[in-house]
Amino acid sequence: MNAGIEKTLSPRQVRIIDATLREGNQAPGVKISLEAAVDIARLLDATGVDMIECGHAAVGPAEVQRIRAIADLGLSAPLLCHARARSEDIAAAAASGAEWIGIFCGINRISRISRLRGKSSESVVDMIRRAVGEAKELGLKVRYTIEDGTRPPLDLVTEVFAAAIAEGADRVCYADTLGATEPKGFGAAISAIQRAIPGTPIEIHVHDDRGFAMANVWAGIEAGADWVSTSVNGLGERCGITDLALLLANLDLSGTRPLRDGAALQRLSRYVGAVSRAPADARRPIVGTNAFTHTARLHSEAVLLTPLAYAVFEADRFGRQVAIAPAAAPATLDSSIVLPPVICATELRHHRAGPGWRHVMIDERFVADARQYCIVREIPPQSSPAEAHVDPHRHICDSVFMFLGKEAGMTGLQVEVMLDGEVRKLQSPATLFIPAGALHSYRVLGGEGYYINHVNHGEYNDSLLDAEPAIPASEAAEITESLGAHAHEIRNFLAEGSRLSLCSINDHMDLFETGVLDSLALLNLYALLETLRKSPLNFDTVNIESVRTVRRICTNFLDA
Question: Helix (H, G, I), strand (E, B), or coil: what is residue 211?
Fold first, then answer.
């Protein structure tokens, strides 16, 4: 804890349930894939959260598959599956592999009219009782949430909580679903609930529609709340909910809950921001790009001597560094014009030297704070398909590929593009839009023309999203070095059975996303592994996640 920071909370442990994979997936424009959900779950587990809310099984088979894939990871944090107070939802949750069920049902008048077909409060209470009882009979641990809980009278809230507890609910959750409450009132409500149901853990779930989410959570913790619901970057319905990184940072600062791995919060924020196409705002505390950056001369000089001169949080505890931003200068015509030099391919990760010159048209080396990267490559005549010029990779931001031929109407160039495992042949002129977080690559099949790559980021390499986000770079380097000769044999096998060249298959790419592995190839891979091991596989340890990358194949089955 920093000197001079008042310790306001009791030393009891505050527990965190992160709802990114449920609440975050409900944010406008967000759809988290199964593969991304698995990676997010791993990253969440690395931060030390106490529980992961992983989805709503009753939504459909794809959601069940997603939850089961996370359950198969064997994480330290138990999983909770969201469910309405309905038998079909409870059965789906029980079949999902999650240990906990989160049953939610509102009791206020508007909820009963709009979502419960005008049921009386008495009949709703009976419905909640039955739902909790059904879940307990199926062997699930139960959290009951009173949705939109700040609008009904407190005596009705405590009555409903008591009814759920009587049927076996293990925890109750008070949800400010509209973000309507102010801190003083929210804290008072938690105190009243605690007095009414002593001994039962209380969770709080707070939306940020009025900008009070963190203040309300803090008031709730001070009043005795045991659990807090969060999401990465505050992602969620409308204005989102309590930010995971900021809450953990504040709990650490207050001496209440020590940080496990502050740098993991950065990796998590970056990854979720990419796959959700909703990156953290630059001004967001802890994870925003401006969080530890100083501009004013007085501030800059002071923090160079003492980092905490103008900071509450210590940057290095979160894998960050104190930065000094250059003074902003007005754009002029001279400073905005770039005469692009030819730059070789070795400067860019995942790119390889190939035929034809390349011009970097703009990036932040040439225009300060451009926040744009654009490269043009001339493609000389190609009579046969060429090796991929770029390995499959992902960015934290949107980007585009553009292909222009040298014949009339910009025709005459044939290319093959890959986006999240789907491969398609294109004739120029053509553009491929690449959403943030999507795996992509291309290769030339024939003809001649130009390739243009535009990325919404000022530094190309900094825009790249690692394929294995849960592994720090230092660890990844050590593991890659230890793979040995087997890795080359595995890559040879995969290249022979796929459309990708040998050099385009790296140790970290997702073999299922790229289409390298399918069910038949998987069986052949198992046979190869048994040959290399000189022993049969133990199929109790074999699943899709164990063979998703070359690195995992080697470390899981060949290292010994």
Answer: coil
Share of the chain above pLDDT 90, in %: 67
Percentage of the chain lying above the pLDDT 70 cut: 91
Q: Which residue has the higher pLDDT, 141 or 388?
A: 141
Collapsing DSSP to helix, strand or coil, 40 comes out as helix
Q: Are both 73 and 196 inside the same structural domain?
A: yes
Rounded to whole angstroms, the Cα distance separating 138 from 95 reads 10
CATH number of the domain within which 204 lies = 3.20.20.70
CB 452 within 8 A of CB 427: no
pLDDT exceeds 50 at position 453: yes
Instruction: Report the pLDDT averaged over residues 533-540.
Output: 83
**Within a domain: residue 3?**
no
Q: Are strands 141-146 and 100-104 parallel, antiparallel or unpaired?
A: parallel
- For residue 481, what are the contacts with CB-CB under 8 A and spacing of at least 6? none
Give per-residue pLDDT as tens, 65-104. Answer: 999 999 999 999 999 999 999 999 999 999 999 999 999 9
Instruction: Note whether 268 and 206 are same-domain residues.
Output: yes
Res. 483: pLDDT tops 60: no
Q: What is the mean pLDDT of the chain?
A: 89
Cis, bond preceding 429 (omega within 30 deg of 0): yes
How far is the CA of 386 from the CAs of 342, 423, 448, in angstroms?
22, 15, 12
Q: Residue 314: give the domain boundaries.
A: 293-324
pLDDT digit string, tens, across residues 232-286: 999 999 999 999 999 999 999 999 999 999 999 999 999 999 999 999 999 999 9
Query: Is 261 in the same domain as 210?
Result: yes
Exactly one of 299, 350, 393, 488 is catalytic; name it.
299
> What letter represents residue 279's amino acid?
P
Both tokens of 15, joined, read 């527990």
Residue 382 shares a structural domain with residue 406: yes
**Could you tell me which of 375, 352, 377, 353 has the C-alpha nearest to residue 363?**
375
Extended beta strands in 86-163, E state: 100-104, 141-146
Domain count, the chain: 4
Answer yes or no: do 177 and 242 share one domain: yes
Residue 1 counted as domain residue: no
In a domain, 5, yes or no: no
Q: Which of 465, 490, 513 is the last residue of a domain?
A: 465
Question: Are residue 138 and residue 85 in the same domain, yes or no?
Answer: yes
Same domain, 449 and 522: no
Q: Is 299 a catalytic residue?
A: yes
Q: How many residues does the chain have?
A: 560
H helix or E strand, kind and range, residue 140: none
319's CB contacts (< 8 A; 6+ apart) are 262, 263, 264, 265, 266, 267
